[in-house]
Design a protein that fits this description.
This protein is of the alpha/beta class. Helices cover about 20% and strands about 40% of the residues. It has two domains: about 50 residues, 2,3-Dihydroxybiphenyl 1,2-Dioxygenase, domain 1, CATH 3.10.180.10; about 80 residues, 2,3-Dihydroxybiphenyl 1,2-Dioxygenase, domain 1 (Roll), CATH 3.10.180. The protein is built from three helices and eleven strands, in the order E-H-E-E-E-E-E-E-E-H-E-E-E-H. This is VOC domain-containing protein. InterPro entries: Glyas_Bleomycin-R_OHBP_Dase, Glyas_Fos-R_dOase_dom, VOC_core.
């Protein structure tokens, strides 16, 4: 059994984070306070923490590295999903994401590690990647 991970990250506005992760992405909300919110991201605990230094329009800094002819933002986080769940999520986020960093597509097609992937940012600039493998056991760590 894989155990849940815990990830805490900064956001510029708690209400904006609640709207993005809770309402738009549909992640169940757990405990919260005026400066943080726990969300259940497909069984994992992600926690948005207010960073007032970002200001009302601030964004966290990202760097990009090339992967499969795309500029992949670093840092980023997300979850490896079942293919059908990934497809459902990609349709859901198309309804509220105006700009994908990397549009949903199949990366490394026909090669070891073939995967469905997509990248987008939350309103604070945190980069998220969601991916799926047809055969997770064979492909998750394929070389």
């Amino acid at each position: 059994m894989v155990t849940p991970f815990h990830l805490a990250f900064q956001v510029r506005d708690i209400d904006e984070a609640r709207d993005f992760y809770g309402l738009k992405m549909g992640l169940p909300e757990g405990r919260s306070d005026t400066n943080w919110i726990d969300f259940n991201m497909f069984g994992h605990q992600v926690v948005t923490h207010l960073n007032p230094a970002l200001g009302p329009t601030g964004r966290v800094a990202n760097h990009c590295n090339p992967v499969d002819s795309h500029a992949v933002p670093v840092p980023h986080f997300g979850v490896v999903l079942e293919v059908e769940t990934w497809k459902q999520l990609s349709e859901r986020v198309r309804g509220f994401i105006d700009h994908f960093i990397i549009e949903p597509y199949v990366r490394f097609e026909g090669l070891p590690g073939e995967q469905y992937t997509m990248f987008f940012e939350d309103p604070s600039g945190n980069a998220l990647e969601f991916k799926a493998f047809a055969d997770i056991e064979a492909d998750l760590f394929a070389k």
